[in-house]
TrEMBL record:
It catalyses: D-ribose 5-phosphate + CTP + H(+) = CDP-D-ribose + diphosphate; D-ribulose 5-phosphate + CTP + H(+) = CDP-D-ribulose + diphosphate; D-ribitol 5-phosphate + CTP + H(+) = CDP-L-ribitol + diphosphate. Cytidylyltransferase required for protein O-linked mannosylation. Catalyzes the formation of CDP-ribitol nucleotide sugar from D-ribitol 5-phosphate. CDP-ribitol is a substrate of FKTN during the biosynthesis of the phosphorylated O-mannosyl trisaccharide (N-acetylgalactosamine-beta-3-N-acetylglucosamine-beta-4-(phosphate-6-)mannose), a carbohydrate structure present in alpha-dystroglycan (DAG1), which is required for binding laminin G-like domain-containing extracellular proteins with high affinity. Its EC number is 2.7.7.40. GO terms for molecular function: D-ribitol-5-phosphate cytidylyltransferase activity. Residues 248-386 form the D-ribitol-5-phosphate cytidylyltransferase C-terminal domain. GO terms for cellular component: cytosol. Keywords: Cytoplasm, Nucleotidyltransferase, Transferase. Pathway: Protein modification; protein glycosylation. It comes from the Eukaryota. InterPro entries: IspD/TarI, ISPD_C, ISPD_synthase_CS, Nucleotide-diphossugar_trans. It comes from Tachysurus vachellii. Belongs to the IspD/TarI cytidylyltransferase family. IspD subfamily. This is D-ribitol-5-phosphate cytidylyltransferase.
Amino acid sequence: MMGRDAVDFTVSVVLPAAGSGERTGLPTPKQFCTFLNRPLISFTIETFERIPWIKSIVVVVAKESRDPMLQIVQQFCHTKVKVVEGGTTRHRSIFSGLQAFIESSEGPELPKPKVVIIHDAVRPFVDEEFLLKITLAAKEQGASGAIRPLVSTVIATTSEGFLDHSLERTKYRASEMPQGFLYDVIYQAYQRCSEFDFEFGTECLHLALQYSGTSAKLIEGPPTLWKVTYKRDLAAAESIIKESLSLSACLITGAMAETVELSSRLQKNLESHHMTLDVLPCIKENNELLLKTRNFIQISISGASLSETEEMVKVFEETKHALLYPVVIVWVRLCTDEATDIQKNVELKAIMELSMKVKRGNILLYCVQILYSKVPELWERSVERLTEITESLIRDRNPVLTGQMLQA
């Protein structure tokens, strides 16, 4: 990526995550709410951890959340994270995070960064390109922050509940996260700020201006910077992640003429629906493709390909490929007149038993049966139905549907 080489200085992140999340109306703080088998905060951490020029991430949590957070770090192999206890307010928690680079009672101190990025633990969608802009602007100006246009007009009311005045929306912007600072600028600001600021302040950029004399460079951010605030936002976040996971797949055709012909039809249908496909006769000796793909469609005319599925699963388990995101395997059983009912039942039982076993490892193995027809109209209809089922399984990633036989 252009610009990475410009980051020739140390960069770290502070994620305040000590809030109670009252507005979601859920008993669990929103940063610890789970979807796709992971808490929300793990997705946010991953966003920063996969960026090579970010060296460390300080996660600030409430005292009662420290042990659960350490468990999350261990379970999902977050290697850049240090967990510290926060304060009673957002600003106190951020200051605790900054102090982890200077003084620490919770393990060794971290190297003091040149630039520190402050971000919300409940904003999982921020890309490297925008973080690079924030980081370089902070290095140059001392402070930088994301902004977005106001969606609604801001008004002031009288004590009696009547309109007092409104602000001209075109002159104002919404302050968002992430925000970047020279470490010394923001640390000095927190050292100098008042008790009132600690208790009631909300804007880090204002502290840098008031107590360090640093005016932040403001950068308009993308629409994806939104914050998970309400319960419905959790569903939206899950939907966005599922959509990003369903854009591509590996189609394993098998070597028989019937499976190759079905694969060709399925490929045409899926690609017309904007899914990118890698097409292979088999997956053996292709671990590189295995480990960069989250979705697999395997066409089989008998249970012979089950051993190949088991080999795939073994690779996923050994490499922890399904640790962060569920891996989907859609096993398509093409039924012809050649197989006996007993043979079919044995094969289907085996694949369904495997489905239940691998689900514990975040591998979702679905079974779809399609009956071959010599009548073109019926066959085309079945293939279209198979396309719809396959798309839906990959997109929805519903663990409830594993271990069952779906009929196309």
